[in-house]
Every structure is written in C-alpha cells, then in structure tokens.
UniProtKB/TrEMBL annotation:
<dbReference type="InterPro" id="IPR006067">
    <property type="entry name" value="NO2/SO3_Rdtase_4Fe4S_dom"/>
</dbReference>
<dbReference type="InterPro" id="IPR051810">
    <property type="entry name" value="Precorrin_MeTrfase"/>
</dbReference>
<comment type="pathway">
    <text>Cofactor biosynthesis; adenosylcobalamin biosynthesis.</text>
</comment>
<keyword id="KW-0004">4Fe-4S</keyword>
<dbReference type="GO" id="GO:0032259">
    <property type="term" value="P:methylation"/>
</dbReference>
<dbReference type="InterPro" id="IPR035996">
    <property type="entry name" value="4pyrrol_Methylase_sf"/>
</dbReference>
<keyword id="KW-0169">Cobalamin biosynthesis</keyword>
<dbReference type="InterPro" id="IPR006363">
    <property type="entry name" value="Cbl_synth_CobJ/CibH_dom"/>
</dbReference>
<keyword id="KW-0949">S-adenosyl-L-methionine</keyword>
<feature type="domain" description="Tetrapyrrole methylase">
    <location>
        <begin position="4"/>
        <end position="215"/>
    </location>
</feature>
<dbReference type="Pfam" id="PF00590">
    <property type="entry name" value="TP_methylase"/>
</dbReference>
<dbReference type="InterPro" id="IPR006066">
    <property type="entry name" value="NO2/SO3_Rdtase_FeS/sirohaem_BS"/>
</dbReference>
<dbReference type="InterPro" id="IPR014777">
    <property type="entry name" value="4pyrrole_Mease_sub1"/>
</dbReference>
<feature type="domain" description="Nitrite/sulphite reductase 4Fe-4S">
    <location>
        <begin position="389"/>
        <end position="504"/>
    </location>
</feature>
<dbReference type="InterPro" id="IPR014776">
    <property type="entry name" value="4pyrrole_Mease_sub2"/>
</dbReference>
<dbReference type="Pfam" id="PF01077">
    <property type="entry name" value="NIR_SIR"/>
</dbReference>
<keyword id="KW-0489">Methyltransferase</keyword>
Length: 528
C-alpha cells in the first residue's frame, strides 16, 4: 500500500476554526507528527493515534520522519498551526521529498489541507486591518539572513503595505522587532495603528491596539502576531480598520463618509474597485514602483525623499450656487470657481441648478473659505436636502424669498435617507417646476400651496400630490421642518420621499393618494 502525507494546518487553535477536512485528515492518519504544543492543542482529535511530538526547532527531523513513515506505507499527518504553507511544514516536507527524487506520479501521495493563517485570525480580532495590499514577514532569522529581512521591511514600508509580522520576538531574539520599528518609522507616522494579537482563539488570547511609536511598550512574544497598518489605517471604537482604497471623499458634513451599500463599487466613489473595461493603473502600483526604483538607486534613502502626496489627499466634493434666489454668477465668482478647481479638479453643471466642484486636496477647509468669501452658497452633495428656488422674476415677485432663505438656513444640506429637493416658486406659474420636486412650495396670493411626494425621475414620473392650499406664511417653515423631521426619522435608507409617503400613507396629517400614471410599462433597461 502507498503511504500518504497529509499536511494539516489546524488554524489558530480553537476547535471551531479547524476545517472539516483537517479533522477528517487527522482521523484518517496512522501517525500524527508535530511540535509538542500543537499536538496538545488538537489532542481531542487524535486520540488513539501514534503521536510523534518534537521540540520547536526540530522541523527538519519532523519532516524527515514523516517522509520515512509515508514511504513505509503509512498515512502521516504533519501538523502546523495556522496554514501549513505559511512558515509551516508544507515546504519543508516537499524539500525532503525533492531531495529524494520524489515525483507525484509514482511517489507517496501528498495532500495539503489549508488552514486559517495568523494574519487572518489575528486580523479578525482587531477589526479589518488587512483589507488592502498586505504582506507577511517573519522576523525569525533562524533560517533567513537578517540583511534580507531588513531589506524586505524597508521595501514594504516604503510601498505602504499593511504588514503582519510573524515570529516577532522570542526569549533570545529581541533586537529584530526594535529594528523593524526603526525602519518602518522612516516611512510611516508614529501614530500608525498597530495591533498585537497573542494566542488568537486560544485560552490566553490577548488583543492590544497601539501605535507604531508605542508598540514596544507592550508584551510581544513568540505567540504574538504584530499587524501594522498602512498610511490610511485608522482606529474606530477599538477596531483597527484599513479602508478599501486610498481616495476618500470629503464632503461638508463629515470628513470620513462611510459609503452606503448602494454607493459602493461605483467608479466615482471607489475608483480602485474593479470595473469593466480598461482599468487605470492604481496609484499604489506606481507608488510601489517608485519606492522600488528609489531602493535600487540608493540603499539608504532619507525618509523625506519618499513622499506620499496622492495618498492622503482626498476628493473634496461640494455643491455651489450663487444664491437661493439669485441665479447669476458674477465674473469674479467664475474666476474663484476656476481657481479653486485648478488643473486637477472638475466643475460639473447638474440638472439641479448647481455647480458641483470636485477637487483633490488636503485642505478642504481652505477651499470652503474661499468659496464662501466669494458669496457662494455651498452645500454637501449626496443624500442631503437641497433648496431649489426660482429667481422670483429677478426679484419682482420677491415676497417669498425670505421664506426660501430661511428654509435654506435651517434645512439646507441636512443628511437624509435619500436626496430631497424642496422647490419654492414665487407665483402660481411655478415655472421652475416646484410641483415636480420632492416637496413643492408655491407662493400664490400671499399664501403657500404645498405639494408632496413627486416622483421626479423615471418613466413613471409624476408631479407631487397637492396636499394643502393657502397655508399662512408664518406656518410654512415650521410645517416643512416637521415633514422633513418625520422623513428623516422614519424613512428607510435610500427611500425617496415619494416611496416613503406611499409606504406610511400619512405624513403630518396629509393622506397619501396614488399619483402614479395608470399605464403598464416594461421596466427601463437602466432600472426605474
Ligand atoms: N503556520 C502559521 C505560522 C507559524 S510561524 C500560520 O499560518 O499562522 C509562528 C508565528 O505565527 C508566531 O510567532 C505568531 O507570530 C504567529 N501565530 C501563529 N498562531 C497564532 C495565534 N493563534 N495567535 C497569534 N499569532 C499566531
């Protein structure tokens, strides 16, 4: 009978994280060979097996013994913690086989059973620190020259990889982690988040969140994996999180805008995501190449030569208009827009009488100030409330302007479940089409008419439902505030006001009536 070698990675150490195939493989085998501590960890699964447990540094003799028994026709499980192919026994066993001229066709059978490696198990306890391009580096110079390890730390430090350091420190090896920290501080901020996970998913599990500057003040040992964030990794509520990509958008309301599920993976939001068609080279790649070129040229580069300008820069996105009623840009304002956009930014005119500016910058506050000084009304872009007023016939029908301005001041830019446009028109002509906005307000004979829940887009578009006529001017602002508050509180994410009205049937006492056109229409190809 032909023997078999089963190279089993049993994961971090808890039973729940051992794969089904790994358990079966242990059951199948006649011999179990492994490092003493590991054999103890999986004791429950190997009862009645012939066990050969050896000391820490006896990997080579373990591999040789395993091959010997397999050649005698036995099934031999060689165990590794984590994954057998990550600083584990898989490679060593192959090395022994290769030396003996082994071939798959006629030699002993070999099966490698994958396991959860420390980079994954430890990351899961820290949050989502890996996420982006990452690497593992073992700091053990037992089998690898330190000069090579040093070179690798330097290269990945420069190229901004997330790094998982395996074998960071032992009783005798204490310098390596100090050196690793020193090298990485050449490229990364002292505040870079660092996670220290000891004995993940084992009895004495310990998770510590710290920084690159402070990491050595904590206990690090042979059972620790050190995960070092990249330049975008942040800590939030005791979680270490690395964003999926580098370019983040600033809007006016918050600095780090988490994307909603429906916004994800769109080119404009996540330019790093996979898209059909031709892909631009990711900036990280260029950066990596730059770092490698620099490393090639000169061994000891001063830290300041490797800069990361594109990395910390974000796209500042803001909607700009010359006023609530005013629709005219002055020449000076156009100059300011052009200066703010610069070479790299874009200026887009939207169907909502807004100009949207998208500018890569590290200093959005400065741009905000410049725009405000030029007399622009600026508001965030996205699922926010926007006031769209008519021009009140260039001020001839000006009576409703103060109400429009008050609404802008109180509600403009408010974050909501979905974009919401309030249209305010100064006379019954309503030529800026307030009735087609989510909330339409029309000033007529000194009082306001109110329209709710237009469906402004799509082939089943319809005007808003006329819900009230002759509202006293003093009541209009508080009434709109109550409607918006109810929608903000009870609307589902991504639920536009017309859908919300249809679902809840009553907003602030106004009853829903179906305004949808009664025609059968095939769904539009781009969704309707
Ligand atoms: N084959 C293993 C790695 C073996 S090298 C794997 O894929 O995970 C040993 C190193 O792995 C340790 O020094 C430590 O850095 C890491 N490690 C393994 N198991 C771990 C655990 N449960 N918790 C934290 N780190 C662990």
């Amino acid at each position: 009978m032909k023997g078999k070698l089963l190279l089993v990675g049993f994961g971090p150490g808890s039973e729940k994280h051992i794969t089904e195939r790994a358990k079966e493989a242990l059951q199948e085998s006649d011999y179990v060979i492994g490092y003493k501590t590991y054999v103890e960890l999986i004791a429950d699964f190997i009862e009645g097996k012939e066990v050969i447990s050896t000391g820490m540094s006896e990997e080579v003799s373990r591999a040789q013994a395993a091959v010997k028994y397999a050649e005698q026709g036995k099934k031999v499980a060689v165990i590794s913690s984590g994954d057998a192919g990550v600083y584990g026994m898989a490679g060593l066993v192959y090395e022994v086989l290769v030396e003996k001229g082994w071939r798959e066709a006629d030699g002993v059978e070999v099966e490698i059973i994958p396991g959860i490696s420390a980079i994954n198990s430890c990351a899961s306890l820290l949050g989502a620190p890996v996420m982006h391009d990452a690497c593992t580096i073992s700091l053990s110079d037992h089998l690898t020259p330190w000069e090579l390890i040093e070179k690798r730390i330097d290269a990945v430090g420069a190229a901004d990889f997330v790094i998982a350091l395996y074998n960071p420190k032992s009783g005798k090896r204490t310098r390596q982690i100090v050196e690793a920290q020193r090298i990485l501080l050449k490229y990364r901020s002292p505040d870079t988040p660092v996670g220290l996970v000891k004995s993940a998913y084992r009895d004495r599990e310990q998770v510590i969140l710290t920084t690159l500057a402070d990491m050595l003040e904590h206990d690090i040992g042979m059972l620790t994996t050190v995960i070092i964030g990249n330049s975008t990794t942040f800590i939030y509520d005791n979680k270490m999180i690395t964003p999926r990509g580098y370019q983040r958008k600033y809007t006016l309301t918050s600095e780090k805008q988490p994307l909603r599920p429906h916004e994800r993976l769109k080119r404009e939001n996540e330019p790093w995501a996979l898209h059909e068609g031709k892909e631009e080279a990711p900036p990280l790649f260029e950066l990596g190449m730059k770092a490698l070129r620099l490393l090639d040229k000169e061994k000891d580069i001063p830290a300041k030569e490797v800069t990361f300008p594109k990395l910390i820069e974000s796209i500042f996105e803001v909607a700009v208009s010359p006023g609530v009623a005013n629709k005219k840009f002055s020449a000076q304002q156009l100059l300011v827009l052009s200066a703010v956009a610069g070479e790299e930014g874009s200026v887009e005119y939207t169907p909502h009488h807004q100009i949207i500016l998208r500018v890569p910058t590290e200093n959005p506050q400065q741009l905000t100030l410049q725009l405000q000084e030029a007399g622009f009304i600026i508001s965030p872009v996205g699922d926010v409330l926007a006031i769209k007023a008519c021009d009140f016939c260039d001020g001839e029908k000006k009576d409703a302007i103060p109400y429009a301005e008050e609404l802008q001041e109180r509600l403009g830019g408010m974050e909501l479940p979905k974009e919401l446009n309030i249209g305010i028109n100064g006379c019954g002509m309503a030529c800026y089409q307030a009735v087609n906005d989510d909330i339409g307000i029309v000033f007529r004979k000194g009082k306001f008419d109110l329209f709710l829940g237009a469906k402004p887009v799509g082939r089943t578009a319809h005007a808003g439902q006329p819900v009230a006529e002759g509202i006293e001017p003093a009541q209009i602002v508080p009434l709109i505030e109550r409607i918006v508050a109810e929608y903000k509180e009870k609307g589902h994410p991504n639920e536009r006001l017309f859908k919300f009205f249809k679902r809840v049937k009553n907003i602030q006492g106004f009853e829903y009536r179906n305004m949808e056109p009664k025609i059968m229409i095939e769904p539009a190809p781009c969704g309707d």
